[in-house]
Design brief:
heterodimer; A: 2 domains; 12 strands; B: 227 residues; six-stranded mixed sheet; binds adenosine-5'-triphosphate; binds magnesium ion
Chain lengths: 405, 227
């Protein structure tokens, strides 16, 4: 009841001092809008990191033979019944892919390079970056395809072309080195050179025949989920379903991405606090000026018998009103800014250097409702806290002094 | 026997202006009975405002005793003084009496709000009081849309609406022309006569003094005359 009165008073004062408040509102809304846009960009970056880490043949979760991480050879491989029986609700899973991975040496007539030979089922690879590759020549036809798909950067290094032949050396399941002749069926373009130099694809069963002596060995079962948020629970379930294997999630497999991914929230918070601290100083100053402008009026009210608590409450409510309006405008401004940037920021010029940071050639902002609500509320909270300084000013001075100013 | 509303005994107030002590009040003894309309007059700096503020619980004093409506003011905490002002005293100041963003009605109702009076009663009492003071047509005007005299009448309405034991007015007519001053004073005299309101006003305007029933003169912080 008294609050309704104070709220009415506050809103009318906001309107009465609209000129000064307009400047304040502009400052608040630009700060909040800026934070919103930068948060969306940072979230976008975080999402890219996740997608890249997951798409980079890692998946959310990977089942491997124990020891494969330390010694990625056929000696440390698995025999799993395929298709695998994945635990829990099938709707959790976007898909899975079984692969063989072998460290390999590739030789053309001109050059020799180290790489990784990956035997895949091209159909299953809809869960990895493989699905997005643009291919010159042709892609792999199926699990029995005995030809190769190599990256453009590797093709350049080897000075080879589609339909040329190369020789690949790997260590077989028996521990002996094997030399295998291959034909290059296609050359792919990936977003980064690292990938292009690293992975050479061929059919899974064809590779099993040639390197594993017909045995259905695989190096890994990669699993992709619909939701990152289910990762930990599914990880545990898969661990239980495949007890004698080594089951890890992408955070364990890609620790550097994981670290970047996990500091994002701190980065956003620090950035927000820096912006808001600057804003809070301006806010406190303006509010003190606002209170001083009304010091006679407030002194008069206290002379009439209005308690200190009421005066503090009045100033605080007014500040929170201004802050709330500013934050609301700022969030709108931020959403508008994100909408303007919806096509992403083109970073092609830097893309090679940025890839290691999980940044794509095009940084697309991502608006998270939790961020909007959370940072909006935090901003209002900061306005609330900041308003106590001017409020204290208003009650520190005696009513008589205030009225005689 | 009329009740004593204000009693001051041996009241002293010394201000420190830099290192110079200024004796604003020097041993003032004063009793004001219920229903009196008293003016405090005297030259500038004689201590009129100081005395009025001390009686109103707005200023401290160094020596002596003050009681208002039977309550001893000495030793009361700031919050107790504040509550006393709200409950027992009506104030009309020289200027800045009203909240600019509130209408006349809201300004008057506001003080009832602070007293915790219910919404409907606030409105009824505020409207009645403003109507009594001839402001029935101005309920929804804001202070900026009222003349100086009308503003002071709203201030009196606000001071009166809480039924205080004492109305204190420090130079309420200082910003008014003589015509308006006369109107405001006859209004105050009406309140004094018809409702028995005890009023103390500080002034150096002879016109104001002429309207009051008792004239207390101050010189250099001492009472020099009392008729
Ligand atoms: N806050 C203060 N600090 C220092 N001195 C003060 C203060 N208030 C009043 N005084 C001094 O006390 C004396 C009495 O002041 P007071 O305001 O009571 O006079 P007054 O009779 O109301 O004068 P006026 O007619 O000008 O309003 C003056 O000398 C004044 O300078
Ligand atoms: Mg004075």
């Amino acid at each position: 009841m008294a609050l309704a009165m104070l709220l009415k008073l506050s809103l009318r004062n906001v309107v009465l001092y609209r000129r000064r408040n307009a400047f304040l509102l502009i400052a608040i809304s630009f700060a909040v809008g800026g934070v919103t846009v930068s948060n969306a960009l940072i979230r976008g970056w975080q999402n890219d990191m996740l997608e890249m880490a997951v798409a980079n043949l890692t998946g959310h979760i990977k089942v491997q033979a124990p020891g494969f991480v330390d010694d990625p050879s056929l000696a440390n491989s698995l025999t799993l019944a395929l298709p695998p029986i994945l635990p829990g609700d099938a709707r959790l899973y976007q898909g899975w892919a079984a692969r063989i991975r072998l460290p390999a040496v590739v030789m053309s007539e001109r050059a020799t390079r180290g790489a990784q030979l990956v035997g895949i089922d091209p159909q299953q690879e809809a869960i990895s970056f493989y699905r997005d590759l643009s291919i010159q020549g042709r892609g792999l036809a199926g699990v029995e395809d005995r030809s190769l798909l190599i990256g453009a950067a590797l093709a350049d290094a080897l000075e080879t072309k589609v339909d040329r032949r190369v020789v690949i050396m790997v260590q077989g399941a028996d521990g002996r080195t094997r030399e295998m002749g291959y034909r290059v069926a296609g050359i792919y373009d990936a977003p980064g050179e690292l990938v292009e130099k690293m992975f050479i694809f061929t059919g899974l069963e064809a590779l099993q025949q040639r390197a594993a002596g017909q045995r259905p060995l695989i190096s890994e079962l990669s699993i992709v989920l619909h939701e990152e948020s289910n990762r930990l629970s599914v990880l545990q379930a898969v661990q239980e379903a495949y007890p004698d294997t080594d089951v890890r999630d992408w955070q364990a497999l890609e620790p550097q991405f994981a670290e970047l991914y996990n500091i994002v929230d701190s980065v956003m918070l620090i950035w927000f606090l820096l912006t808001m601290t600057a804003l809070a100083f301006g806010l406190v100053n303006t509010l003190i000026a606002a209170v001083m402008e009304r010091v006679r009026e407030l002194g008069m009210l206290r002379a009439l018998g209005m308690g200190r608590g009421f005066v503090v409450l009045q100033v605080v409510i007014e500040s929170v009103c201004i802050m709330s309006i500013g934050v609301a405008l700022g969030l709108l401004l931020g959403v508008f800014g994100v909408w303007l940037l919806a096509d992403g920021i083109d970073l092609t010029a830097f893309s090679d250097g940025l890839e290691g940071w999980g940044i794509r050639a095009r940084l697309v902002p991502l608006l998270a409702v939790e961020d909007l609500v959370g940072y909006g509320l935090m901003s209002v909270l900061i306005g609330f806290i900041a308003s106590f300084f001017p409020a204290r000013r208003a009650v520190k001075i005696s009513p008589l002094m205030a009225m005689n100013r | 026997m009329k009740q004593v509303v204000v009693r001051c005994q041996g009241l002293c107030r010394t201000y420190q202006q830099g290192s110079v002590p200024v004796h604003a009040l020097q041993s003032v003894d004063l009793e004001i009975a219920e229903g009196e309309f008293t003016s405090l007059s005297g030259p500038s700096g004689s201590g009129k405002s100081t005395l009025l503020n001390i009686i109103g619980g707005l200023d401290k004093f160094d020596q002596g005793r003050v009681s208002v409506g039977g309550v001893e003011l000495g030793g009361l905490r700031e919050s107790q003084l504040s509550a006393l002002r709200l409950a027992k005293i009506g104030f009309v100041f020289q200027a800045y009496n009203l909240i600019p963003v509130l209408s006349a009605l809201e300004n008057v109702a506001f003080i009832l709000q602070l007293q915790g009076v219910g919404k409907r009663e606030q409105r009824v009492r505020a409207e009645q009081m403003l109507a009594d003071l001839g402001l029935a047509d101005m309920l929804h005007r804001r202070p900026g849309e009222l003349s100086g005299g009308q503003q002071q009448r709203v201030a009196i309405a606000r001071a009166m609406v809480t039924n205080p034991v004492l109305l204190l007015a420090d130079e309420p007519t200082a910003n008014l022309d003589s015509q308006t001053t006369a109107e405001l004073l006859s209004l105050m005299r009406d309140l004094n006569e018809s409702k028995g309101m005890t009023i103390v006003t500080a002034t150096h305007d002879p016109l104001v003094i002429a309207y009051t029933s008792r004239q207390v003169g101050l010189i250099d912080g001492r009472i020099s005359s009392d008729d």
